[in-house]
Structures are given as structure tokens and as C-alpha cells.
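Troubleshooting log. The previous run stalled partway through. Resubmitting the same two chains, unchanged.
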Amino acid sequence: GESVGLHLPTLSVQEGDNSIINCAYSNSASDYFIWYKQESGKGPQFIIDIRSNMDKRQGQRVTVLLNKTVKHLSLQIAATQPGDSAVYFCAEGSGGSNYKLTFGKGTLLTVNP
Amino acid sequence: ETGVTQTPRHLVMGMTNKKSLKCEQHLGHNAMYWYKQSAKKPLELMFVYNFKEQTENNSVPSRFSPECPNSSHLFLHLHTLQPEDSALYLCASSQERGASGSRHEQFFGPGTRLTVL
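Second attempt completed without errors. Output:
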């Protein structure tokens, strides 16, 4: 079946370094992708999204890259800070009138001071 | 704050109890969702409501019963649960426009941490 998954379940970086979190998806019909951040004790929080007609989108300190050829999505965080420590989920969306998001397992990012 | 609130934040119940989870969204959205989040698993979609009508039941056991009285409120009624139902239950909402190129961002509440004894 179709699935969304993450290459690395955990990632540990030094404060100030750049972080890259990867995600693979398999549904070629997906037309929308989102990255969420979930801190301990909280619900997932939107970070950035990208539509399938784009290959790159930038936000504040974050960049999402979409490679449809290999069905790969990545989240880049510049100058990672301790407050960035959280679980990061990718999600892919597809469907018409009954649109659904399918979530990956998540990557735990730990930022060391 | 995401504009989606959930109560209670924590709930402990026995297998014979009946309880309800409540979700309220203050964003004017037309779609609401229940998800189950268990340890080391992806978010599992349980139910979807669009304009108060249930459009998705993702093979959820009947011991979970959703209710959507209006587009701002969503309930999850629980009865005769099992210990394996212990998880974080997340509510989300979105504004579905149905047009190509639309964003489908879902806004999540903080969740209810449910423990079934």
C-alpha cells in the first residue's frame, strides 16, 4: 500500500548547525506536503507546506525541498536552536472532495547546546 | 495557541466506564478530524467530518463513537475501551475549499492523553 516514511528516526545536532530531516513517500498522486513539529505534551504544529507543482519553498529558517522524481521530501532547518528540539512529521495529501493527509512516523530532533 | 481546544487534557478510565472527549475550533473551519497517536506509530486517522457530516470512518471499532453537532464542535464518546486504546487523541480542523492548488493544512489541538486501566 501507499505509505509515508522517514529515513532517520532520530537526529542529534549541535546548536547553530543546520539540520536536515528526510521523508520518503510512495503515492505519486499526492499533490500537497506538510511538515509538522510536535513538542512534548503538545499537538503537531504546522511548519511549512509545499504543493506538488513546486520543488522548493522557504520560510523563516526552514526550507522544504520536494523531489518528485524519487518521491523524496526534506526539511532543512538553518542555525538549529534548542527550541527546535521536537519530533518532526511529514505528511502527504491527496484526494478530491474527501481530502486526506497521511502522516509519517516522525523524526526526533535533539539539539545539543 | 492553534485555535483548537481539547478537553480534558488527561483522562484515566476503567474498561467499563463511559466518557467523552471534546474538541472545539475557533477558526471557522468546515472540516474536523479525530486522530489517534500511539507510541512509535504514525498518526492514525479515525474520523473525518465535513460540514457536520461524517465522511470518513477509518475502520474504527464501535466502542469509539463520534458526534459533530455543529462545524465548531466535535466529540468522541468512549465506552468499554481496552487497555490498548490508551493513546493521545488529537483533534484537528481545516478549511477545505475543494479547488486545485488549495492548501489543506490541518490545525491540531493539544490532545487528550487517555489511559485505560
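Takeaways: Residues 6 and 23 of chain A are 4 Å apart (CA to CA). The radius of gyration of chain A is 14 Å.
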